[in-house]
């Protein structure tokens, strides 16, 4: 993992087309601004994990149903 220090209004660039800027710092909370192309999805990690879990559950359910249909 790369760890960087940034101050308010400072930014970093990822892959030449994603810019992350520190907008505000209040105590232990940091507000970030993310400028990325529309085709690049940006999620909070907890939301991303929920999406991945839901996708895995859907695959498991669909796979089980497909197997039951195949076996009759």
Task: Walk me through this protein's architecture.
- The chain contains one helix and three strands.
- By secondary structure, the chain is of the alpha+beta class.
- It has a three-stranded antiparallel beta sheet with strand order 1-2-3, with no helix packed on it.
- A hairpin with a 3-residue loop joins strand 1 and strand 2 (18-26).
- The protein is elongated and about 65 Å long.
Structural class: alpha+beta
Strand/helix succession: EEEH
Instruction: Specify the helix fraction band.
Output: 25-40%
Count of distinct strands: 3
User: What fraction of the residues are assigned to beta strands by DSSP?
Assistant: 25-35%
Q: Strands of the biggest beta sheet: in what spatial order?
A: 1-2-3
**Unreliable spans:** none
Mind describing the biggest β-sheet?
3 strands, antiparallel
The N- and C-terminal alpha carbons lie at a distance of 50 Å
- Counting DSSP H or I runs of 4 or more residues, the number of helices is 1
Keywords:
72 residues; alpha+beta; 3-stranded antiparallel β-sheet; 1 helix
Task: Offer a quick outline of the entry.
The protein has one helix and three strands.
Secondary-structure blueprint:
Layout: E1 11-14, E2 18-26, E3 29-35, H1 45-71
Antiparallel strand pairs: 1-2, 2-3
